[in-house]
Amino acid sequence: MIRNSKILMNKLKRIGLGQITSTNNKEDNFRKCKEMIEKAVENKVNLFCLPECFAFISGGIHQFESRDNAEYLDQKGGIIERYKDLAKQNNIWLSLGGFHEKILDDPNDMIYNTHLIIDSNGVIVCEYRKMHLFDVDIPSKGVKMNESKVVKGGNDLVVCDSPVGKLGLSICYDLRFPELYLSLRRMDAQILLVPSAFMKSTGEAHWKPLLQARAIENQTYVIAAAQTGDHHSKRSSYGHSMIIDPWGKVLHDLPDNLNDIAFVDIDLDYISTCRENIPVFNHKKLNNYKI
């Protein structure tokens, strides 16, 4: 099933997203993503977005599994080379959010969690390294995650020009830090990309309101491609990939456990309309806020 929402069809800027259940089987993940990209191409999508961990998600074997399966961005015959070929062959832009990137000569053998934009010529035009890392230890609930043990945080904010507008890049846990998105908006972002793999418990409580808040407060579209379903016996993702407009209206909300695509035709003029109706960025007192 393919879901489509049309907004002011005189403006043909079509963005799509894919919702998948990745595993530690790279070939199977690539096959699923390739099929989704081909569907997107059939439906004339200009930019197609895949979720965090699109290429690989830990099988729960050991805590360094993601690191051991990481690759360099320019690795000969690597997974990113295959996606670059897909983009070029299909004349489509790709947002690949949450790739385990090897760091050359890192003394601690760390990796980056990297969001890539690949253009329709198969060229990487933007790279964002996840800034906010998820470390939590709740003994009473038996929950312990330590992303920073394996992943090195990035420092650079990234806004990327594309045929569909200016893209503000982020990944998953970044969503909880509104200052990041405020900064992206101040860098003229029109569309916020939030590829994610939210856990079910936090997803049910916070996913939708956080996405709507980022859309409303920055008056931007939000495109949030998400992992869904059971990856292995100890890890499940919430799903509910969403596309939200600058007024906060949810245009798409893919059901949990559904591997599918959705797309919309967006009109950048609508962003201007929302910003004119409520010109909050003209009224901000940035010098007065102490953060």
Explain this structure.
- This protein is an alpha/beta fold.
- It has a single domain, classed as Carbon-nitrogen hydrolase (Nitrilase/N-carbamoyl-D-aminoacid amidohydrolase), CATH 3.60.110.
- Strands 1-17-2-3-4-5-6 form a seven-stranded mixed sheet.
- A hairpin with a 2-residue loop joins strand 9 and strand 10.
- The relative contact order is 0.19.
- About 2% of the residues have low confidence.
Concise account of the structure shown:
The protein is an alpha/beta fold. The chain is 26% helix and 30% strand.
List the helices and strands and how they pair.
Blueprint: E1 2-6, E2 13-19, H1 26-42, E3 47-50, H2 65-68, H3 79-90, E4 93-102, E5 111-118, E6 124-129, E7 135-138, E8 143-146, E9 159-162, E10 165-169, H4 178-186, E11 191-193, H5 200-218, E12 221-224, E13 228-232, E14 235-238, E15 242-244, E16 250-253, E17 260-266, H6 268-277, H7 280-283
Parallel strand pairs: 1-17, 2-3, 3-4, 10-11, 11-12
Antiparallel strand pairs: 2-17, 4-5, 5-6, 7-8, 9-10, 12-15, 13-14, 15-16
